[in-house]
Amino acid sequence: MRISKNIDCKNCELKCDIYTASIEIDEDPVKLKPTYAYYSKNEYISKQGTNVSHAIFLINGSAKIFIEGLNNKNIILYLMTPNTYIGLLSFFETPYYLYSVKAMEDTTICMVEIEVLKSLYLKNHDFLLKLNKAFGKSVAQILNKIITLNQKHIRGRIADSLLYLSQIYGSDYFEMKLSRKELGELSGVSEENAVRLLTEFKNDNIIDVKGRKINIKDRHLLTQISNLG
Amino acid sequence: MRISKNIDCKNCELKCDIYTASIEIDEDPVKLKPTYAYYSKNEYISKQGTNVSHAIFLINGSAKIFIEGLNNKNIILYLMTPNTYIGLLSFFETPYYLYSVKAMEDTTICMVEIEVLKSLYLKNHDFLLKLNKAFGKSVAQILNKIITLNQKHIRGRIADSLLYLSQIYGSDYFEMKLSRKELGELSGVSEENAVRLLTEFKNDNIIDVKGRKINIKDRHLLTQISNLG
DNA sequence: CGCGAGCTTGACGTTGTTCAACTAGAGTGG
DNA sequence: CCACTCTAGTTGAACAACGTCAAGCTCGCG
Questions:
Q1: pTM (two decimals)
Q2: Residue B142 located in a structural domain
Q3: What pLDDT is stored for residue B197 in this prediction?
Q4: Residue of chain A with shortest Cα separation from B92
Q5: Range of the domain at A155
Q6: Residues 197-216 of chain A in contact with strand C via CB under 7 angstroms
Q7: Same-domain pairing of A109 and A174
């Protein structure tokens, strides 16, 4: 991990909500003291159980948010792509992280101290609303995951994940940055069964698989499998 | 369901955060236009998918918060007892309820319009912090449930629920307001297996069961079962 | 060329749901 | 006051779904 302090927001291609809010209330973004941090693949960005001190915004690369469960088994809650908050679920006054975040490739993030952020959202209502909206979205995803894990068969769970990935990558054809094991963790399924279902879907002509490149050929059917469970 | 409008907070034995906040900023609580609603057992207090228009506070009685899943199978996220918010997870700008709430006995709630609440927390920082803290607690419970559902055996899941119930009712001896089916829904287990495990725990001298009255005799062992999964 | 990580496949055993039958107790009407 | 019915709870047995173990494969890289 490498750090560079006091980033100048003017040079940041990503005009994030924090920056916008700060401009709107006529405050110099320098006051935010934004800090970039660069992580390599598989490095921890934040670790379950440690203190939450900063709001974290993903600039480029990608990361997985996961809970570290029993017997070293993880569940990936969802993935982070540029222009989203890390730690959204925790930054409102939860003293420590309820989950871990790891970079899935070389990844740059921007940190702003919680205290700075707080003073900002208390001055700017719109910003608070934006935060809350993003927050609500995360919670919705998680509730959905509860149903999936408890009530869908592994077929439906993997179908869910594939649809989710295609949405993340914005296309029916994508190269996922997940190993088979991670695809399993995202779906709450063992690695072996993740593999089995990929080949099954391939044989059924629903998808094409080449390594980590996936092509969804029959989105309709895949959606049906996901819905039926 | 019966309603009485324009409650006078002075007569309410429960001095909730909303009331406190309103006093702190020197605003007459009458402006909150608090409304009581009385529900009988098993009535819906809010229904998954409908609009969120009010913040809801439980005055007395109890309620279950659950997701309505596939094939009419529900998962109870957690229970509500007096002096807690209903709909906490939704009231920040989520357009509709992500879950349902049903009264588990005759229950009184107090409603305040979302818009009123919003104007309040924008004026009073402490109140916002309190809301967020409660919010974080709910999310923590839910993340915990994900691990439980996916990684623990039914033995551990039921143990979890029993410990949770004893915490809710504040004693090792309690009468739960849940049917066996609901205990199953709280634990992500079928009704039959919920029954089986109660008798198993009883035979192992870990608990006493008489109808819906539970007595935890060996909390230590029960905790161990919960931790080991 | 050989090694290792990631991937794949088969066989097997455990876990937990489901179906079905039965019991106990509460409420109802003759 | 006794059948009856209805609901909640209980128990057993069969079956399907998944995870686990073990072995083999592939491909990139030293």
A1: 0.91
A2: no
A3: 97
A4: A132
A5: 150-228
A6: 198-199, 209, 211-212
A7: no
